Write the structure tokens for this entry.
Amino acid sequence: MKTTAFRIAAAAFAAGAACALAQADKTPAPAPAPERAAPIKYDPPKRGAPKGRVGGGTRGLEARELTLAVLAPDHAGLSSVAAPKLYWFLSRPIASGFEVSVIEDGAADAVLDRAIPAPANAGIQVIDLDALGVRLKPDREYRWFVSAVANPNARSGDFVASGKVIWQPLPAELAASLGAANDDTRIARYAQAGYWYDAYARLRAARERHPDSAPLRDAEIDLLGQVGLPDVVRHLAPVPGSPIR
């Protein structure tokens, strides 16, 4: 009797395992990297805003050339969300403290002002306002800063880059057009409507999912070139014969 019960239990276990394997086999595979990326044309928002991106660039630090830049246009770029991701670039790691600040135009106090870990690797970095619990007010201009602090006792020597961001909820027509659109189309429509922070964040996320995709790499380089970031493009552009970065 016990033997029969044991056989029944074993058969049930085997059937359950087979069912689980069958379900696992149905798990959709990750989307393949695109063979080509859709053209992306960034059109600045028509707000007549003053210059947004200041500072940064390339300078000698620790006896070697260093590029520090915010990945933002030279005007106030739009975000469709209250807590966007803010991307910046560092050409090489340095033994320096770093700080990030976000302040509303005309305000006395910053909504964010804190030290951040020094990047361990060169390349594109990100400040996630959502993870930091920071939300912007709609239709207000904010300036955000990334500072490399070479000497805490002599802040005039800081290497600072900054850009501007505005949280502007999506117009109903644009929001509706994004509903069933694929990722390529979304990126292109965000860029065309002046939503820099959404377009770049989605393109960067696609790059991180497919780091070996040459079309996505080229699309990212082209988009950054459109907003006048030649120092960043120079570092990201592939050297003939080198692996894709």
User: Anything to note?
Assistant: Confidence is low (pLDDT under 50) at residues 1-25, 241-245. The CA atoms of residues 98 and 148 lie 5 Å apart. The first strand starts at residue 54 and ends at 55. The two ends are 65 Å apart (CA to CA).
